[in-house]
Design goal:
Shape: elongated
Helix content: over 70%
Strand content: under 5%
Number of helices: 6
Order of helices and strands: HHHHHH
Length: 101
């Protein structure tokens, strides 16, 4: 998690320090919940993984499927795109994603 927070701190000009990123960025919290849910998904506990994923989605507003493959230094853009998939139509999300490339 610290690698992800450091990557966000280096890339986001609004980030002040590591503590602020760790405590206030919902993307970090969503990734933390995802990592726990992913552990349960890979150890054949899909119901528990799904429950954790839904809990995280309610708390952060970001839904990440427990079976998704996300690296250790994920960019915040990846989490935002996943959030847009949850909230809007897929067509709008794909337009946003291709425009940001």
């Amino acid at each position: 998690m610290f690698q992800t927070a450091r990557a966000i701190l280096n890339r986001d000009p609004a980030a002040i320090n590591l503590r602020t990123v760790m405590l206030t960025y919902p993307g970090i919290h969503a990734l933390a919940w995802y990592r726990v849910a992913h552990y349960f998904e890979t150890h054949r506990l899909p119901l528990l993984a799904a429950l954790l994923s839904q809990h995280a989605a309610r708390r952060t507003g970001i839904l990440i499927h427990p079976a998704a493959q996300i690296g250790h230094r994920s960019s915040l853009t990846m989490v935002l795109v996943l959030s847009l998939v949850q909230r809007r139509s897929l067509k709008t999300t794909l337009q946003f994603y291709t425009a940001s490339l």
